[in-house]
Amino acid sequence: MSLLFKNVKELVSDIDEFINTVEQGVLVFKEGVINYLNDEKESFAQKLERIEYLEANADKLQRKIDDKFLMHSILPQNFSNIEAMLDKIDEIIDISKDNLYQFEVEIPYFPESLRQEYVRLTNASVEAALQTFPAVRTFFREPLKVKDILTKVYFYEKEADRIARDIKRKLFHQMDDLHLSQKIHLRYFALHIETISDKAETLADMLSIISMKINL
Q1: Rounded distance, CA 109 to CA 115, Å?
Q2: What is the CA angle 181-102-124, rounded to 5?
Q3: pLDDT value at residue 73
Q4: Is residue 126 a contact partner of residue 196, using CB atoms and an 8 Å limit?
Q5: Has residue 73 been placed in a domain?
Q6: Which residues neighbour 60 within 8 Å (Cβ) at sequence distance 6 or greater?
Q7: Residue 54 domain-assigned (yes or no)
Q8: What is the span of the domain harbouring residue 83?
Q9: What average pLDDT is seen over the chain?
Q10: Would you state the pLDDT for residue 95?
Q11: Following CA atoms 92, 124, 16, 101 in sequence, which dihedral angle do they give, to the nearest 10 degrees?
Q12: Is residue 1 part of a domain?
């Protein structure tokens, strides 16, 4: 049974647009990191502009959705849970934007031997986030089916953890040609990228709990 009524189709459309916007932001983050690693300065700058726009648009959509939930008195007994979930979704694009700007501000140097590892980490971390969005869409239509969709989120989050650990081991155990300050700097950028999957895991946990508790 859908959580949303037929007379609020506009709200359904707004929720889909919000999710689509956050999803695009995550994909732009992924492309931006790869642009940076490949020294594609112009493309990287374009990704910064794009993610800035998407993050601002996501904030506007979230406020619009919150207002409509209250205006139409939809699921008032569960509104606080839904609002918290929307906040967690918005945090994913917020951290994606902030982390992409860290590349522009701090200008980290990535040795050639590590670049592919950072690409793999970015792919896994982003994939964890991307796997949450089908579950969010399902939550508003068939909440009892949400938990079955979340398996891939946890798989990719663990994969991101594993790749990040491998990068850190390689940095501190094998790369004697780097200064300690460079190793620490690159470790932080592994952490920056990994936070996307961490946010996805937090959202997945929340979705799992709320979908079971929701009062239809």
Answers
A1: 10
A2: 95
A3: 59
A4: yes
A5: yes
A6: none
A7: yes
A8: 6-213
A9: 90
A10: 97
A11: 40
A12: no
215 has pLDDT over 60: no
CB-CB neighbours of 95 under 10 Å = 20
Report the alpha-carbon distance of residue 56 to residue 192 in Å, rounded.
Answer: 21
Contact 84, 206 (CB under 8 A): yes
pLDDT tens for each residue of 133-191:
999 998 888 888 898 899 999 999 999 999 999 999 999 999 999 999 999 999 999 99
CB atoms within 10 A of CB 62: 21
**CATH number of the domain encompassing residue 53:** 1.20.58.220
Full-model pTM: 0.91
Which one, of 23, 80, 90, lies nearest residue 210 by Cα? 80
Q: What is the pLDDT of residue 88?
A: 96
- pLDDT band per the 50, 70, 90 thresholds, residue 67: confident
DSSP labels for 9-68? HHHHHHHHHHHHHHHHHHHHHHHHHHHHHTT-HHHHHHHHHHHHHHHHHHHHHHHHHHHH
Q: Which residues contact 10 (CB under 8 A, 6 or more apart)?
A: 68
- Give the length of the chain: 216
Q: How many domains does the chain have?
A: 1
Query: Which sign does the torsion angle of CA 96, 51, 122, 154 carry?
Result: positive
